[in-house]
Every structure is written in structure tokens, then in C-alpha cells.
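input
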Amino acid sequence: MTTKTKWPPAGTLLKDLENDKFGEFQTELNGSFWLRPVGGGHEWCVHPGRTRQATYAEVRRAREAVKEMRARAARIRAESAP
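output
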């Protein structure tokens, strides 16, 4: 994000250009954006200038990947249930 004082709304999907991964914006702290992986996980920080907002297609792909991951986990749990 190139703006200095305006932050994206919480939950906005951003691309971390430094680490080549996507994360949902959580907050800004001490000049860094804190992102959380789509679907949950450990947050990480990145300089705002090294992020960009995800395109519509990237958002769709990320959401679909989370759905598939959760469906796969549910199948595995069902298969391993006694």
C-alpha cells in the first residue's frame, strides 16, 4: 500500500511481495502491517510498501483453497473415526 496514513479495512486480502504470499490485513503496528494467512494461522508483519491489494481473481483462488483444505480435513477426520 502506498498511502502513509490510510490502512486497508481489517480482513482485506493483501499480497506480501517480499515473501510472495497472501494474508488478511489485521492491524498496523509501529509502521508494519500485520497479516494473517487466509484460513487462519500465525500472523506476520511486513512493511506496507511491500504489499499490494489482491486482485479479485487472487481473492477467489485463496478462498477456494481454504474451502478445499477444510473439506479435505473433514474427509480425513471422517475416515479415521472409529
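quick obs: The first strand starts at residue 13 and ends at 16.
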